[in-house]
């Protein structure tokens, strides 16, 4: 049975109370209801007056822009279904324990984001020849690692010019709620959640790689504090299963009756479309699942498989691979900050003859 270390600190509990994951039963929804979408807030939710708010676009451009929300909304709009996953998803399952937001496997969600494409705005501002990266700055500000800073992240210019990168003001057809970045956030399909900067206030084109805290210290794959590590970028493939049956309240072990059981879930990758999902029961052979069509090329893909559940305790696992050849590893890869743990999900079930009111 998978266990989480007992030494969860009060600080980690505080983070867990502020942030929340997707209840896995909500994987049944192709589009995640707003209140069930995973949420990670690094610092505080800023108080924003949309009437006075402006987006400043400058740096290595020939014509800096300053735009209000209504000016942005008057531009060509696009709505796109996109899966977002936190880079720390699965962190709490790593050994040795990594002290941070204690995610299990639910730090994910898929929503329809409405906004205006970023590339035409950059082109309108006039991209200078020396520009190499685009830096996104949010209104959220705090301290991490002893350094006070605004939340900022950058992406290479060629990534920013992709047609599907959006400046989004709506989520599932409604204005962005405060916790999801009102009034504006950036959506960079395929990349882990740290890239989708919320409460956006500035976009700057720069002529050298950006070296902010969240770029050079946070979101790096490293084994020790002394090494620079590799940057976290796109989402690795992952499949998740809707836990079958009903749960035990405390352990979340699943209880179900014997017979034909539909196993279903979602799978995604930020590198290429999912082309394979497999399920294993009790360490047995991996069986291919049936795949559904995704809502978009940037959204998760539904899968399903029939299982003949027999009386007893069982362990279910699922894993995914994408069309670029990326696949989930059998075991997690530990790193100092607990990022990119995409080891197969494990679901423990107890199949019992009777599941009626009363003692199990």
Percent helix among the residues?
under 10%
So, the CATH homologous superfamily of the largest domain? Oxidoreductase, molybdopterin-binding domain
- Would you give the CATH topology of the largest domain? Sulfite Oxidase, Chain A, domain 2
How many alpha or pi helices?
5
- The radius of gyration computed from the alpha-carbon positions, rounded to a whole number of angstroms, is 21 Å
Distance between the amino and carboxyl termini: 20 Å
Percent of residues in beta strands: 35-45%
- By CATH reckoning, the class of the largest domain would read Alpha Beta
The dominant shape is globular
Q: Which strand order do you get reading across the main beta sheet?
A: 14-15-22-21-17-18
Descriptive account of the structure:
The chain is mainly β and 360 residues long. The protein folds into 2 domains: 10-231, Oxidoreductase, molybdopterin-binding domain (Sulfite Oxidase, Chain A, domain 2, Alpha-Beta Complex), CATH 3.90.420; 238-351, Immunoglobulin-like (Sandwich), CATH 2.60.40.650. It contains 5 helices and 22 strands. The strands form 5 sheets. It has a 6-stranded mixed sheet, with no helix packed on it. It has a 5-stranded mixed sheet with strand order 2-1-10-5-6. Strands 3, 4, 7, 8 and 9 form a 5-stranded antiparallel sheet that branches. A hairpin with a 5-residue loop joins β17 and β18. The model has no long low-confidence stretch (mean pLDDT 95).
Task: Please render the helix and strand layout as text.
Layout lengths: L9 H9 L36 E5 L5 E3 L1 H5 L4 E8 L22 E10 H8 L7 E12 L2 E10 H4 L5 E6 L2 E2 L9 E3 L12 E7 L6 H4 L3 E2 L8 E2 L6 E4 L4 E2 L6 E3 L2 E10 L5 E8 L5 E2 L1 E2 L9 E9 L2 E11 L22 E7 L9
Parallel strand pairs: 1-10, 15-22
Antiparallel strand pairs: 1-2, 3-4, 4-7, 5-6, 5-10, 7-8, 7-9, 11-12, 13-16, 14-15, 16-20, 17-18, 17-21, 19-20, 21-22
């Amino acid at each position: 049975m998978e266990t989480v270390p007992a030494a969860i600190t009060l600080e980690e509990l505080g983070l867990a109370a502020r942030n929340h994951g997707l209840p896995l039963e909500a994987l049944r929804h192709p589009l995640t209801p707003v209140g069930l979408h995973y949420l990670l807030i690094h610092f505080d939710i800023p108080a924003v007056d949309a009437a006075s708010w402006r987006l400043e676009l400058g740096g290595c451009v020939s014509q800096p822009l300053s735009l209000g929300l209504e000016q942005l909304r008057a531009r060509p709009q696009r709505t796109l279904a996109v899966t977002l996953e936190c880079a720390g998803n699965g962190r709490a399952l790593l050994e040795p324990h990594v002290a941070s937001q204690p995610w299990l496997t639910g730090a994910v969600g898929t929503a329809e984001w409405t906004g205006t494409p970023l590339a035409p705005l950059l082109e309108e501002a006039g991209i200078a020849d020396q520009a190499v990266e685009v830096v996104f700055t949010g209104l959220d500000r705090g301290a991490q690692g002893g350094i006070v800073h605004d939340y900022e992240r950058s992406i290479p210019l060629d990534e920013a010019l992709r047609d599907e990168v959006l400046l989004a003001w709506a989520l599932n057809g409604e204005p962005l709620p405060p916790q999801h970045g009102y009034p504006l956030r950036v959506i960079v399909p395929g990349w882990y959640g740290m890239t989708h900067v919320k409460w956006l206030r500035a976009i700057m084109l720069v002529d050298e790689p950006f070296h902010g805290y969240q770029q050079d210290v946070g979101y790096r794959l490293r084994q020790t504090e002394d090494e620079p590590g590799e940057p976290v970028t796109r989402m690795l493939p992952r499949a998740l299963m809707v836990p079958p049956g009903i749960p035990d309240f405390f352990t979340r072990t699943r209880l179900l009756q014997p017979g034909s059981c539909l196993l279903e879930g979602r799978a995604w990758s930020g590198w290429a479309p999912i082309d394979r999902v497999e399920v294993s029961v009790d360490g047995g052979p991996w069986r291919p699942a049936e795949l559904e069509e995704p809502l978009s090329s940037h959204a998760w893909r539904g899968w399903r498989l029939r299982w003949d559940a027999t009386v007893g305790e069982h362990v279910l696992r699922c894993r995914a691979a994408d069309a670029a050849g990326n696949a989930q590893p059998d075991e997690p890869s530990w790193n100092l900050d607990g990022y990119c743990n995409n080891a197969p999900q494990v679901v423990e079930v107890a199949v019992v003859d009777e599941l009626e009111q009363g003692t199990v």
